[in-house]
Design a protein that fits this description.
alpha/beta, 7-stranded parallel sheet, 7 strands, 11% strand
Length: 323
């Protein structure tokens, strides 16, 4: 037993020394700072305790999302192409539209009714020297999707990239809180909308074209209080992989980006002011992403210059190690 006691004493001594180091390196009450790995420091919790009315207007956010990606230099990766971005008025969609324009694409924005945000996105795209049209409507409506796509192609003569990004999200504490109407709104916006847009665009897409869908970390892991939203995001991931296989012989690639928490109007239009103040703090980065940290991933997947040998991939950009 003496040997075992010696081993135990040795382990206790090791533990004691580490405890002392821990106490010295972490004063009581000290919290780790948010992680910054880019050229600029991005905002971190605590955020303004704000709650927006749906669908969420970016212009009304106290802390505006960062979307311009000022250090990103375009190099013609989408030169002369035409792209459609749904939900392109704000958030991730706006950031993607701006970078697509910087890479040489004309961009059409589809959005619900956030006219002020859409006008600002159009201004930013045109400031990049490219054309932009904005079309208001509901992607749940197949007729609207078809008419919008037909109009854009008639005006610009081609279509090369579709970004499916429009979404509806509202939390629920219990499955019993989800009515049929509410479940339908989430499902038909998030997955029917992607289906409608892909179907409307497909006749115009040629070899080298790309579809990029917005998935979510919630579609990879689930989310306790986003039962319907997570379900649709999982469906989007499966839709992405299935459509990729279906369209590969046509030379059309289909991929998805699965973001973690991102500072966009979607979240303060869902969560309470107390929750939004600490939004993103549970990630490894201890902060949410800004839209400009997501948009280069969409450029990568949209451009055949960058990703001609990639299809059916769900690219996680979650801010957490191993996710």
């Amino acid at each position: 037993m003496a040997i075992q006691d010696d081993v135990a004493d040795k382990q206790k001594a090791i533990q004691s020394r580490q405890d002392q180091k821990d106490a010295a390196s972490k004063p009581a009450g000290e919290h780790k700072q948010a992680v910054q790995t880019g050229l600029v420091d991005q905002p971190a919790p605590p955020f303004p305790s704000q709650h927006l009315s749906k669908p969420g207007i970016e212009a009304q956010m106290e802390l505006k999302p960062r979307f311009m990606a000022e250090h990103y230099k375009g190099s013609g990766k989408l030169q002369g192409q035409v792209a459609i971005v749904t939900g392109g008025d704000s958030g991730i969609g706006r950031a993607v539209a701006v970078l697509f324009a910087r890479e040489g694409a004309d961009v059409a924005i589809l959005y619900l009714n956030e006219h002020e945000d859409a006008a600002e996105t159009q201004r930013c795209i045109e400031a990049e020297g490219r054309r932009c049209v904005t079309v208001a409507g509901d992607v749940k409506d197949m007729e609207f999707c078809q008419e919008a796509v037909d109009k854009i192609v008639a005006e610009w003569g081609r279509l090369d990239v579709l970004v499916n990004n429009a979404a509806f999200q509202e939390h629920a504490e219990s499955l019993l809180d989800l009515t049929e109407e509410r479940f339908d709104e989430t499902m038909k916006t998030n997955i029917y909308g992607y289906f409608h847009m892909a179907k409307a665009c497909l006749p115009y897409l040629k070899r080298g074209a790309a579809i990029v869908n917005t998935g979510s970390v919630t579609g990879l892991k689930g989310a306790e209080h986003l039962l319907d939203y997570s379900t649709t995001k999982g469906a989007i991931h499966a839709f992405t992989m299935s459509l990729a296989a279906n369209l590969l012989d046509k030379g059309i690639r289909v991929n998805a980006v699965a973001p973690g928490p991102v500072w966009t109007p979607l979240n303060p239009a869902d969560q309470s002011p107390d929750q939004i103040a600490k939004f993103g703090a549970a990630t490894s980065y201890r902060r949410p992403a800004q839209p400009e940290e997501l948009s280069p991933a969409y450029v990568f997947l949209a451009s055949s210059i960058c990703s001609s040998y990639i299809t059916g991939v769900i690219l996680p950009v979650t801010g957490s190690v191993g996710e």
